[in-house]
Every structure is written in C-alpha cells, then in structure tokens.
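Let's inspect a concrete specimen:
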Amino acid sequence: MIIETDLIDRDNLYKANKGYYDKLYQERYDNLILREELEIPQEIRSKLEEAIVLQKWVTVKSDGDYATLPHQYVVRKNWNEKIISFNFFCEIIRQYCSVEIWKGTLKNWAGRKGEYLRIGNFKYWDMGYPLEITTIINRENKIYTTHEEYKNHPQESI
C-alpha cells in the first residue's frame, strides 16, 4: 500500500503509534556514532542553499522552553518545495551531517547526540524521527545569541 505522505495527519499518526515511533527513534539514536560532517557535492549544496532562502524561517518564542535556546525552524506544511522537498532536505541532513554531543542548556537534552549539517552560517537539524512523522527542520547560527538577532536575520540570506 502506498501512502500519500502529503496527506498524512502526522500528529495523529505519531499519537496512534507512539510506542512504535519512539522505539524506532531510540534505536536510531542509540546507534548514532560521533563523526565529522561529510563533504556535500557542490551541486547538492547549491540546491540546498537555493531552497533555504525560499523558506519562511520562524524564530522560536523567547519565553517558555526555548528561552535560553534561540533558533529558527520551518514546519513541513510550510516548506516551499520549488527546489527540493522537505524529505530530501532531511535525508541530506542525515546523510552528510556531523554527529555531535549537544551543548545546549535544556536539561532533558544535555549530553545527547545530535545530527547537524552546516550550510552558510547556520547548522541545521531535524527531529530525528522517521520521515513520515518528522515535521520540523531547525537551524541555529552560532553568532546569534538572542531571539531578536534571529528575527532580524535577512530571510534571503544563508
């Protein structure tokens, strides 16, 4: 059976199969090996850069869980697929990324491994779940320390 992934209610799919998806995520996470980023072929990197500037990056709210972790994200349903698909971007992150120990400030993430792909001044990561339920791509710029700096980042710049 073929599932049309653009029509999937990803939240309900996850909720209905939480144990299954959490197990897949944990197995994948447990098997990540620390590594340096791999070199992306220039043709693919150029397409990624073209796709990045088409997206409407949203800065996380400055209160709540992410008060100490300013960054930006784009939601799958808002992804502009003119250049490349959301899934392809996630697959490239996972294929070429570095795997690093996360050095953030959220207690529940401290010391965890993460997959990061550097493009321009940002590093990108997705949720790490199977693609059929992955709905967010995040990005962080190491020179920005405030939510306001992210909000002022030119949309067309990488």
Remarks:
- Helices lie at 10-16, 18-30, 42-54, 86-96, 147-151.
- The chain has one domain: 5-151.
